[in-house]
Specification:
Blueprint: E1 2-5, H1 8-18, E2 21-24, E3 27-30, E4 34-40, H2 45-57, E5 67-73, H3 79-91, E6 103-107, H4 110-123, E7 126-131, E8 136-140, E9 145-151, H5 160-166, E10 170-171
Antiparallel strand pairs: 1-6, 2-3, 4-9, 4-10, 5-6, 5-7, 7-8, 8-9
Helix pairs in contact: 2-4
C-alpha cells in the first residue's frame, strides 16, 4: 500500500503509456472507442463516500484498488477542505504539498484511494481518476456531474446496463 506524488511530466508519461488515453490542453481524453456516461451526484459526505465505493467496486468484476487521482480544480478554494488532503498526505509522509501538485498515484491502497475519491466528490472538486491496469476513468466537476468512461473492449460487470439506469446515467458527448 502506497501513495506517490506524481510530477506533471510523470502523469503525462503515465497517460501516454496507457495507450488508450491522451493529454490534450490539460484534459484527459480517450484515444480509442469508449463508452461514456454522465452521472449527477449529491456531494454531501455520506452520499459521496457511498458513491465513491460503488465506483470502485460496482462497475468492474474486481475491486479497483490502484490508480491516479489528479485534482485539477479546487473551487471554491476552501482552506478547511484543503487541510484534509494535506493531513492525508502527512499520513503518507508528505509535507507542504502545493495544490498544483495534487496528482496522487495510489498503489494497492483501496482505503486511501476510496477516502481521497470520496473527498473529491464531497468537495465538488474537478478531478480525474485513472484506474491502473484497467481502461476506465472518471472526471468529476464542481457541478456535481461525474463522467465515467471505459474502453469498449474493457470487461465490465454483466449488470452494467441496470447499474447505469439506477444511477440515471446519460450517455455523454465524450464517447467516440
Amino acid at each position: 500500500m502506497s501513495l506517490k506524488l506524481l510530477s506533471s511530466d510523470a502523469l503525462s508519461s503515465w497517460i501516454t503509456d496507457s495507450h488508450w488515453l491522451k493529454l490534450s490542453n490539460d484534459r484527459i481524453i480517450p484515444n480509442k472507442l469508449v463508452e461514456c456516461y454522465e452521472i449527477a451526484f449529491a456531494n454531501d459526505g455520506n452520499a459521496a463516500a457511498a458513491f465513491a465505493g460503488g465506483l470502485l467496486t460496482d462497475f468492474v468484476p474486481e475491486r479497483i484498488g490502484s490508480g491516479i487521482i489528479w485534482i485539477y480544480q479546487i473551487f471554491p478554494p476552501e482552506e478547511a477542505q484543503i487541510r484534509v488532503i494535506h493531513q492525508t498526505l502527512h499520513l503518507y509522509g508528505y509535507e507542504k504539498v502545493s495544490t498544483q501538485d495534487f496528482r496522487f498515484h495510489f498503489q494497492q491502497d483501496y482505503g486511501g484511494l476510496l477516502s481521497c475519491l470520496s473527498w473529491c466528490l464531497a468537495c465538488g472538486w474537478g478531478f480525474y481518476f485513472l484506474a491502473e491496469s484497467r481502461q476506465i476513468f472518471f472526471r468529476g466537476s464542481n457541478e456535481n456531474i461525474l463522467d465515467i468512461c471505459w474502453a469498449r473492449d474493457e470487461k465490465m460487470k454483466d449488470n452494467i446496463d441496470s447499474l447505469l439506469a439506477n444511477l440515471s446515467a446519460k450517455r455523454s458527448r465524450g464517447h467516440k
